[in-house]
Design a protein that fits this description.
The complex is a heterodimer of chains A (105) and B (530).
Chain A lengths: L1 H10 L19 E3 L9 H5 L5 E6 L2 E6 L9 H5 L5 E3 L10 H5 L2
Antiparallel strand pairs in A: 1-4, 2-3
Chain B lengths: L2 H13 L5 E6 L4 E6 L4 H11 L3 E10 H4 L1 E10 L4 E10 L4 E3 L8 H12 L2 E3 L48 E5 L11 E7 L2 E8 L7 H5 L4 H9 L6 H15 L6 H26 L6 H22 L8 E2 L2 E2 L5 H26 L2 H7 L7 H6 L4 H6 L6 H4 L20 H25 L17 E8 L2 E9 L5 E7 L1 H5 L3 H4 L8 H8 L4 H4 L1
Parallel strand pairs in B: 2-5, 6-7
Antiparallel strand pairs in B: 1-2, 3-4, 4-5, 8-9, 9-10, 11-12, 13-14, 14-15
Helix pairs in contact in B: 6-7, 8-9, 8-15, 9-10, 10-15, 15-18
The chains are: A alpha+beta (105), B alpha+beta (530).
Bound molecules: iron/sulfur cluster (2 copies).
Amino acid sequence: MFEILRKIWRTGTVTRRQPLPPAAAKYRGKIVIDPERCNGCLECIGICPSGALRTNCIQGKEQLVISHEKCIFCGSCADNCAEQAIKLTNQCYLATRNKQEAQER
Amino acid sequence: MNQLSKKQLVARLLQSFGKKMLSSRPVQEHETELVIDKADLPEVCRTLVQEKKGRLFTMVGNDERELSGHFALYYVFAFDQLQHLITVKTLLEEADPVFPSISAQIPAANWYEREVKDLLGLRALGHPDRRPLILHGDWPEDQYPLRKDFSAALPVSRQPDRGTSMQYSGRDVTEIPVGPIHAGIIEPGHFRFGAVGDTVLHLDAKLFYTHRGLEKSAEGLPLTKALFTAERICGVCALSHAVAFAQAVEAAAQLTPPPRALYLRSLFLELERLYNHIGDLGNLCAGFGFAVGVSHGSRLREQLQQLNEELAGHRYLRGVIQLGGLRLDVTPAELSRLLTVLEQVEADFDELMDIILSHDIALDRMATTGVLSLQQANDLEVVGVAARASGRAVDIRRSHPYAAYGQLDVPLVQYTQGDVLARFKVRAEEVKTSLQIIRQIVCQIPAGAIWAPVPEIQPYTRAMGWAESPRGEVCHWLMVGPEQTVFRYRIRSAAYSNWPAVPLTVPGNIVPDFPLINKSFELCYSCCDR
Ligand code: SF4
Ligand code: SF4
């Protein structure tokens, strides 16, 4: 009994309040596409295992868009883009109240 | 054992089959395939298991009508002493898709035989249990999803449920149905107890509520994408499944990944075991209401998962494996950080184990509860922690080394009591051996590349991959189709081997001990159901 109390006392509180520190640097989080670099080769769409990438006409221009809902954060697209137009960031707080926002950005 | 003597030993093993063998050929380095007539199945399988001491590793049904006009069955037996696998193959005519059952003699074949009936329509004649296994009673009896002419895209109209659960009758027997929806965050399974007072007489478990048809959906996928399916078979053994799949592909391509990749795979596999075992030990305490154990277990598990995130970018170690090696490397700084964290966790863990294992109520609840006898474990080919707690020495890291385990010292942890306490202690000691293995890896890890390109694989090559997941060995059987796609993929997880054993351990115990027994096996539902 004494050992149990001692352990509880020594451990203290481990839950933390938000905002929490950013995820680890290696963390595979939100995908960010740089439309300036993308040359439209569409290599990444073929590679994506979850069908998260597609093209969309934005302001009269075909652009690559990503659905953050479908993405499984595997990083295959970023690894295979010759132009390095796709970057994985360590952003992990992707919850949103606006569904549209999660779908295409 | 040198190569020659192994060849001779395998030849001797097969000698007794003489005329029954229609043909035999080596498949991979570690596997021999023999083709026999289906009438000889019971005899050959019985000889391999009962006389030659092989164990049923997996059994696969395959629709090969477009290749040879037949269905095929593959029974794979593992010979741990020889480090060899023997596959018994038999062909079934499309017009007569039946074969003699071996379940009465080899109980471990029970589920496999019922599964090929459900999914491929291949019927085992003389099987003692004719209830459907995977598709339950509301699936039409003439629809077989794994046949190539079944389209997964078409809806299937359900029929009235045929009622496939056990019914209990008799005076004083109370039937207690539990699930499939449970209180608490666990997966769906329907348990039906026949109890007299508090004591369980019989338990019937109905699983496969989370059958997702992963094997069907993987068919036709490029191998590189199927890897992501493999990673998602199980939430907590993601890495073991990914490694097993990658190894199956590499075996088919006859590729050995670079040494550094093999060591890193072992490293991550042990990290997976660590966070699982420590979390499971904590969760086991919930079975007897010991909240301190649960909290500290999850706290340590959290620490390990944050370590996973730092090293691999994912708390459950997804996205680490690539066909031909690994997708990411670790730096020396990360390795030393790893050792520091593990040292802290180990000291903390030792204290926790002291507390739990010197707690009278904990010991009282765990000892002699839910006993799995060695005979039962052997008959059902139980694997993993549950097997080793019943005195069955199976650990595929030792018997068929993969990744870097051939170069590492992997001690065998074994208890003989077969009760909840033995399973608890096996996990606790395996945490220590995993830490030892990780330290060996950090000392020995070679420098170099972490990936090698996978050469083209001939269509219809088949191969197997396996790994010792935290729950026991998983085995992936793969046949590659044209253009580097999946033709047939059969996943046999540890839970699939062990679930049939769980209901055997419950009779004689009181109903409130079931959650504890269930937690001590800590089986996954979704990787069993696939
Ligand atoms: S692979 Fe790169 S360049 Fe090609 S479409 Fe995708 S983001 Fe653009
Ligand atoms: S990270 Fe993976 S899932 Fe997400 S968009 Fe890229 S390829 Fe697709």
